[in-house]
Amino acid sequence: MASIQEQFEQAVLDAKSLTSRPDNDTLLRMYALFKQGSEGDVSGPPPGMFDFVASAKFQAWSKLEGTSSESAMKKYIDLIRSLKA
User: pTM value?
Assistant: First the structure.
């Protein structure tokens, strides 16, 4: 069986080839889980309040603070699998 890292990398590739575009909430969840899984806790200052997209991404990612990278990877993998089904 593939390692969690290999499964995560495959899920990233699978996410790029989804047949339909997920809704915005799902896209934010995908982004946050990807960032938490690949980089860990959010760092750096939050974006300006008028940069709505970057602000939403930052907030989604910051909600996962303290989640282990492995846990975030597993959740990302599960999410992508559910979107492919």
Answer: 0.93
